[in-house]
Specification:
The protein is α+β, with helices and mostly antiparallel strands and 147 residues long. The protein contains seven helices and six strands, in the order αααββααββαββα. The strands form two sheets. The chain has a four-stranded antiparallel sheet. The protein is elongated.
Amino acid sequence: MDKLYRRTQILDLLGAEPAATQADLRRKLERRGIRVTQATVSRDIEELGVVKTRGGYRLPESAEAAAPQPALSVILKEFLREVRQASNLVILKTHPGNAHTVAVALDAEHWPEVMGTVAGDDTIFVATHGAREAARIRKKFLDLWAA
């Protein structure tokens, strides 16, 4: 079970109803076959931007309107293997079968330097206006990946 799957399940659970406590959220995850420690749930809650209210842990108002989508940095940490530049292109290598997931998350960011993306099975070509923009985007990917 990978981190992205677990976090997607947390977003799905909290989208349906708040969890009173972290222990409650852990129990709900266990019912879905996901066994995690309290420390892991706490870390996931923080990185997903989940808020604690009187009614329990819930998604922020803006996230409730949209489909659950982990942050690009979370997706990069989970699937990205390599970042390279070739002229005005940035080439991202992912684990097999994950290029589409990364490309969709990147497209949702609407970075002005990105002209478009093309995703295969484990490779994404990110087209930019020129080599300078590609270098900036490459650094941006590396920073997000390392964060």
